[in-house]
Amino acid sequence: MYAPLRYFAGMPANRSYRAGGLMFTGIIESIGTIASITPKGGDVRLYVKTGKLDLADVKLGDSIAVNGICLTAVELPGDGFWADVSRETLARTAFAQLKIGSRVNLEKALTPTTRLGGHLVSGHVDGVGEIVKREENARAIQFTVRAPRELAKYIALKGSITVDGTSLTVNAVNGAEFELTIVPHTVQETIMADYRGGRLVNLEVDLLARYLERLLLGDKAADPAAGAGGITEAFLAENGFMKH
Q1: How far apart are CA 23 and CA 40, in angstroms?
Q2: What is the pLDDT along the chain (244 residues), one digit of tens a residue?
Q3: CB neighbour list of residue 104: distance below 8 Å, 6 or more residues apart
Q4: Of 68, 126, 150, 225, which cross-links 202 as Cys (Cβ 3.0–4.6 Å)?
């Protein structure tokens, strides 16, 4: 899980290096605004105005997470950045619901000196979830989110999950649905204030859960069919992880 951080080993401490999309923290740095969505050669070129996000140390080719999607800055006009959005990203994320004027969560890729306030996030969306319910809970807001069935096995009570790039703690799990209790600060500093029932959100599950699933396959991970069904109860029983 921590291998990507070795990228920085031996680099001078007085220089600014970014992970090039290898890793984020899930702590949102700014709310940006979609300023342009331009179809280009079958995919899309996107312009994001970055608000209070400090772009002074961002260079062409650096990565910025937009609603949890790792995008590469290809132009830096000053008040934002241009990025290309591939067909793969368009197909696997909630990007299609964005329009000019949409607010988005922004985070720059981490550096060796970044405080890891959330959890390690790759910026690669695993699936699209749906906001099922929004309820007031004292000063906080409680959301119920429905994840795709194939992601349910990675979502654990009190575990971490990334929703539109925001690192959050799962407070309850019921099948493929999970609950989040969002404190006022997070509501203010992210786009979660905009969430209502029916809204689609980008989900990234905890990296540890994915690596653990692969590790449990052991030597069978080399079998071409191993990734198709993942870890099942039958697999666990067959390999001694469950008592009959």
Answers
A1: 28
A2: 333 333 333 333 333 334 444 689 899 999 999 999 999 888 999 999 999 999 999 999 999 999 999 999 999 998 999 999 999 999 999 998 999 999 999 999 986 655 665 667 888 899 999 999 999 999 999 999 999 999 999 999 999 999 999 999 999 999 999 999 999 999 999 999 999 999 999 999 988 888 888 788 878 878 776 655 555 555 445 555 445 5
A3: 31, 32, 33, 34, 48, 66, 67, 98, 164, 191
A4: 68
Task: Enumerate residues 6+ apart whose C-beta is below 8 A from 211.
Answer: 1
Q: Positive or negative CA dihedral for 109, 93, 145, 235?
A: negative
- For the chain, helix (H) and strand (E) counts, in that order, are 5, 13
Dihedral angle over CA of 8, 11, 15, 20, nearest 10: -30
Q: What is the token pair recorded at 50?
A: 């970055």
- Taking residue 189's Cβ as centre, other Cβ atoms within 10 Å add up to 16
- Tell me the Ramachandran region of residue 189: left when phi exceeds 0, alpha when psi lies from -120 to 50, beta otherwise: alpha
Name every residue whose Cβ is closer than 8 Å to that of residue 154 and which is 6 or more positions away in sequence: 126, 205, 206, 209, 210, 213
